[in-house]
Amino acid sequence: MTAVTTEQQDDIWIVTLNRPEVRNAVDSPTARALHAAFLAFEDDATAKVAVFHGANGHFCAGWDLQHGARLAAQGETVDLDLDFNADDPRALGPMGPSRLQLSKPVIAAVSGAAVAGGMELALWCDMRVMEDDAYFGVYCRRFGVPLIDGGTVRLPRLIGMGHAMDLILTGRQVKAPEALQMGLANRVVPTGQARDAAISLARQLAAFPQATLRADRHSALAQWDLPLGQALLQEWQRGKARIPDALEGATRFAAGQGRHGQF
Asked: So what's the pLDDT on residue 77?
């Protein structure tokens, strides 16, 4: 069985994690395969949006602790070279793609468990579509496994320090209704529908003018550590190249498209 598969539906890529015997937990070969899959998505000029999905009812149960136990029994450490250059947008993370800085959006389709490193993979994505019986949680708190795939960075940025510290320090389970309320989930859908709902959302994003969508996305990601003036300047510098697109869009609007908020 292949642990990571990719499927292309026109300009949408679906990357599926498939290790049912460990609830899609990630070992070192799987981390490399995920990393390679998302680099291939990034490098495909025809691809616009990716959906990240876990097969067989679970998104990802985190780092494969059984794999870690085997390494420990052999007197080995994690069998990946995890040191990286912060300026490298294609760096490999412990869970695979968690350090990638892609130019295109990724949507997580979350079912079942998205815990520990699996939660960090979901946080890496731009949006999260969550099934109503799915759950997040820093479950690795119980075993002394650190958050090294962006959890201590992305979680406070996404939901604020108060909520983030609660989750990081306690490791408690966060079910879909609370995840939606705190902004951890973007959509909640019935059980079994996250994949289809995420693909539908991906198609909506793919239908928009892509250069402007990516410029706005990049600006939002780049602004975190900048003073207000510099943040506004970098927004302008990316956005001004898209003014011709805006004028073309204005022409379509004047001709009757998209009136009354229609998409």
From this structure: 66
- The order of strands in the sheet holding 106-110 is 4-9, 12-17, 49-54, 106-110, 127-131, 187-189
pLDDT in tens, 24-73: 999 999 999 999 999 999 999 999 999 999 999 999 999 998 877 777 78
Per the CB < 8 A criterion, the answer to whether 44 and 10 are in contact is no
The amino acid occupying position 178 is: E
The answer to whether the beta carbons of residues 130 and 119 sit under 8 Å apart is no
Pairing relationship of beta strands 106-110 and 12-17 according to DSSP bridges? unpaired
Q: What pairing do the DSSP bridges indicate for beta strands 12-17 and 4-9?
A: antiparallel
What tokens does 34 get? Answer: 């995920």
Average pLDDT value for the chain: 93
How far apart are alpha carbons 12 and 187 in whole angstroms? 19
Predicted TM-score (pTM) of the model is 0.92
Q: Could you please report the per-residue DSSP string of 49-87?
A: EEEEEESTT-SB--B-HHHHHHHHHTT---SS-----TT
Question: What does the CA dihedral 97, 101, 103, 105 come to, rounded to 10 degrees?
Answer: 50
Candidates 94, 58, 38, 20; CA nearest to 191 is 58
Asked if residues 142 and 65 have their Cβ atoms less than 8 Å apart, the reply is no
Query: How does DSSP assign 143-198, residue by residue?
Result: GT----SSHHHHHHHHH-HHHHHHHHHH---EEHHHHHHHTS-SEEE-TT-HHHHH
- Cβ atoms of 150 and 99 closer than 8 Å: yes
Q: Which residue has the tokens 């939901």?
A: 159
Residue-wise pLDDT for 111-170, tens only, equals 999 999 999 999 999 999 999 999 999 999 998 889 999 999 999 999 999 999 999 999
User: Is 52 in contact with 91 (CB distance < 8 Å)?
Assistant: no
